[in-house]
C-alpha cells in the first residue's frame, strides 16, 4: 500500500498498477469547468443519479487539460446501451461493430459508450488480426486499456471535478508526447486506423510521437489496405479538416504512411506541379478551421484533385472536344477512379463536380452570364476556387481581380466591368487547339453538371 502510494507520488510509469487510476483534483489538473458542455454534465448526472458510473472521456478530457474547448463530448459509463437509451428522451443505439448511444440535446450530439472489457481479446478478427466487432463490456480499468493513446484514456467526473488517469496521460500531456497504450504492434494490428490517428494527433496537437509508438508504423502501414475504405476515408477527412492539414500530410510522409495506401495522397504528394495549388488550398482550409468557419469536404477534394482534372481537361480539348463537355469528361474520369478507391460519397462527388463545372463560366464576362453565375447557389465555392487558381498562377490574376470587383460592386460598377472585360482566355488552359466560336447554349446545358441529388450522406462508418 505504502509502496503503491510512493510510486503514485513519484509517477513511476512502468510499475504503475493499471487497474488503479491516479486521481487528480481540480487544483492538480486545472480544468476550467466553464469549458465543459452543460449537456455533457446533464448526461453524466442523469446516469449517476440512476446509479451508474459516468464520465466525460477521451478527446474531450485531453482538450480540457490542454485548456482547449472540446468540439464534442464523449461519455463513458458502466450502463449498457439499452440502459442508457431508457434514461433519455432522444437517444438512439447506433453501430454494429462498436455499439454506442447517441443522445441528442437540441443540436448537440453526445456519444455515450459502455466500458469495453478484456473479453474483447476473443472478439472476432479478420485474418490479419483486425478486430471486427467489439461489444464486450467490462470494468473501467479495462476500458482505459482498450483506448488508443495515454492522452485519450482519461476520465473526468464533472460532479467531483476529478480526473482519473490510468496510463500516465496527464504526464504525457505535460511532456507533449503521444504514446500508444500496450504493445504497439498488437494495437495497430487490432485496428490499423490507429496509425492514421497517431499522425493526426501529433500534427494537430504539436506533440512528438514516442519512439516505440512510431517504430512499427512504416512496416505495418500496408495493413491499412484491409480496413474498409469508408473508415479510411472518414479518418482522412478528419485529418484534412484538423486545422493542421499540411502538417498532417508531412507527418504521414515522415511516418511512411503515404505511399500506395491512399491513392489521393499519392496524387497530391507526388506531383510537384500541383503542390502550389494544393498548399494554397490546404492553407486556406486550415485558416478557416482555425477561425471556426465551416469547411466543405467537396471544396477540399475538388482542390486536391484539380490538377488531375486539369490535365485530362486539356487532353480532351487537344483531341478536339469543346471546353465544357471536355471538362465533364475529365471530371468523370477522375471521380470514377477516386470513388472506387476512396469511397468518396456521392454527395461530396457531386459538390466537387459543381465546383469544377462552374470554372469555365467565370471566363464568360459578357451579357447576362456573370449575373447568372452570381445567382448559382454554389457560387461562393466556385468563386473561392477560382481565386485559388489565380493565386497559384494557373490563371491570370486579372480574372480574379475582375470577379472580386464584380462581386463587390454595385449595379453601375458591374455594368462598367462588363464593358471593360477582356475576351475569354481559353478556359484555364494556356493553349487552345481550335475554337468553335462562342457557345451561346452552354450555360447550364450539360446534364452532367446538374446536382445528382445528394444521398443525405451517412458516412458509412461504424464506430471506432
Ligand atoms: P477528436 O474527436 O478531437 O478527433 P478524439 O480522441 O475524441 O479526438 P474520437 O474518434 O472522437 O477521437 O474518439 C473518442 C475516444 O475513443 C478517443 O479519445 C479514444 O479514447 C477512443 N478511440 C477512438 N478511436 C479509437 C481506436 N481506433 N482505438 C482505440 N480507441 C479509440
Ligand atoms: Mg471526439
UniProtKB/TrEMBL annotation:
Domain tRNA nucleotidyltransferase/poly(A) polymerase RNA and SrmB- binding: 206-266
Bias type Basic and acidic residues, positions: 124-133
UniProt keyword annotations, A-Z: ATP-binding, mRNA processing, Nucleotide-binding, Nucleotidyltransferase, RNA-binding, Transcription, Transferase
Pfam families, per the entry: PolyA_pol, PolyA_pol_arg_C, PolyA_pol_RNAbd
Name of the top EC class for this enzyme: transferase
Record's keyword annotation contains GTP-binding: no
Protein's recorded name: Poly(A) polymerase I
Protein species of origin: Massilia solisilvae
Source taxonomy: Bacteria, Pseudomonadati, Pseudomonadota, Betaproteobacteria, Burkholderiales
Amino acid at each position: 500500500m505504502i509502496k503503491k502510494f510512493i510510486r503514485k507520488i513519484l509517477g513511476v510509469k512502468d510499475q504503475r498498477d493499471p487497474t488503479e487510476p491516479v486521481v487528480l483534483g481540480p487544483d492538480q489538473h486545472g480544468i476550467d469547468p466553464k469549458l465543459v458542455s452543460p449537456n455533457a454534465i446533464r448526461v453524466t448526472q442523469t446516469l449517476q443519479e440512476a446509479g451508474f458510473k459516468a464520465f466525460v472521456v477521451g478527446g474531450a478530457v485531453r482538450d480540457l487539460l490542454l485548456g482547449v474547448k472540446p468540439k464534442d463530448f464523449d461519455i463513458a459509463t458502466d450502463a449498457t446501451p439499452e440502459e442508457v437509451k431508457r434514461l433519455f428522451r432522444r437517444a438512439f443505439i447506433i453501430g454494429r461493430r462498436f455499439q454506442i448511444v447517441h443522445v441528442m440535446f437540441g443540436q448537440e450530439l453526445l456519444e455515450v459508450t459502455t466500458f469495453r472489457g478484456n473479453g474483447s481479446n476473443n472478439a472476432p478478427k479478420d485474418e490479419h488480426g483486425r478486430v471486427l466487432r467489439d461489444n464486450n463490456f467490462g470494468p473501467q480499468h479495462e476500458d482505459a486499456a482498450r483506448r488508443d493513446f495515454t492522452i485519450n484514456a482519461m476520465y473526468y467526473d464533472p460532479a467531483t471535478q476529478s480526473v482519473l488517469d490510468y496510463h500516465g496521460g496527464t504526464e504525457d500531456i505535460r511532456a507533449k508526447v503521444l504514446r500508444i497504450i500496450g504493445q504497439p504492434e498488437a494495437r495497430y494490428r487490432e485496428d490499423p486506423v490507429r496509425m492514421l490517428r497517431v499522425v493526426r494527433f501529433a500534427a494537430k496537437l504539436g506533440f512528438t510521437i514516442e519512439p516505440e509508438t512510431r517504430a512499427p508504423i512504416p512496416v505495418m502501414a500496408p495493413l491499412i489496405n484491409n480496413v474498409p475504405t469508408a473508415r479510411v476515408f472518414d479518418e482522412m477527412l478528419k485529418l484534412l479538416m484538423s486545422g493542421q492539414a499540411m502538417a498532417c500530410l508531412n507527418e504521414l510522409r515522415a511516418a511512411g504512411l503515404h505511399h500506395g495506401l491512399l491513392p489521393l495522397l499519392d496524387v497530391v504528394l507526388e506531383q510537384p506541379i500541383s503542390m502550389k495549388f494544393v498548399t494554397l488550398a490546404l492553407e486556406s482550409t486550415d485558416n478557416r478551421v482555425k477561425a471556426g468557419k465551416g469547411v466543405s469536404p467537396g471544396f477540399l477534394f475538388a482542390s486536391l484533385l484539380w490538377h488531375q482534372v486539369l490535365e485530362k481537361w486539356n487532353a480532351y480539348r487537344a483531341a478536339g472536344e469543346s471546353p465544357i463537355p471536355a471538362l465533364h469528361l475529365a471530371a468523370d474520369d477522375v471521380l470514377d477512379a477516386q470513388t472506387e478507391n476512396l469511397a468518396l460519397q456521392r454527395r461530396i462527388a457531386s459538390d466537387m463536380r459543381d465546383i469544377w463545372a462552374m470554372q469555365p463560366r467565370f471566363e464568360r464576362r459578357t451579357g447576362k452570364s456573370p449575373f447568372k453565375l452570381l445567382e448559382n447557389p454554389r457560387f461562393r465555392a466556385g468563386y473561392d476556387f477560382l481565386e485559388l487558381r489565380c493565386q497559384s498562377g494557373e490563371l491570370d490574376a486579372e480574372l480574379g481581380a475582375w470577379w472580386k470587383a464584380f462581386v463587390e460592386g454595385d449595379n453601375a460598377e458591374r455594368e462598367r466591368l462588363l464593358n471593360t472585360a477582356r475576351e475569354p482566355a481559353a478556359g484555364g488552359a494556356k493553349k487552345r487547339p481550335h475554337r468553335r466560336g462562342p457557345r451561346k447554349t452552354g450555360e447550364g446545358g450539360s446534364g452532367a453538371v446538374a446536382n445528382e441529388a445528394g444521398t443525405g450522406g451517412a458516412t458509412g462508418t461504424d464506430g471506432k
